[in-house]
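=== RUN LOG ===
request id: a7f3
mode: sequence -> structure
chains: 1
length: 210
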Amino acid sequence: MAVRQKIRLCTAHDGVRLAYALSGSGPPLVKVGNWLTHLELDLQSPVWGYLIEALSRDRTLVRYDQRGTGLSDRDVESMTFEDHVRDLETVVATAKLGRFPLLCISQGTTVGIAFAVRHPDRVSHLILHGGAARGRRRRSTDPAYVEEEETMLKLMELGWGKNRPGDSSSPASSSRAAASSSTNGSTSCNASRLHPPLRFDCCAASRTPT
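=== RESULT ===
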């Protein structure tokens, strides 16, 4: 089934334009933005294409490109964890959604958790996949571990846009500076400190401890 989508724009709290897409029909399902996406190119992606199609069969799938990526504004001054949470708030408000399940993948898990804590009345189900409550830099203060994380980030920056096997879509999704800023933010966040009681169904799947 070829996915048909409607792409729209909304404006974040600081003036950044965010692109979001609606596909399928039925009750809403919101996918939190994560590193890295492109609303148009993802339909042909071997990673995202089949998932978008499946999620759009019985629901109206709402997904968006994070600030600094995809069809959203690329040149942004701020890309903090708070920005990402507020961007999600902007998208769901603009789409005029009521209560909905929230799909959080990878980097989007901490953003989704924070949104659910702030708006428990809006989230019917919280679906967490392949993410962690604590960013990688928050998991250990061991010098060797910290050095490894810094080295990986530097390697990403140096290799960005060189069209090596496996990363051909990355330059199309984001600039080197935006990708680095987004990675810095996600590896430094910590949603495990958020402790108010949450009353909705939650499903979590992860290959690494949180």
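=== NOTES ===
The first strand starts at residue 5 and ends at 11.
The chain has one domain: 5-205.
=== END ===
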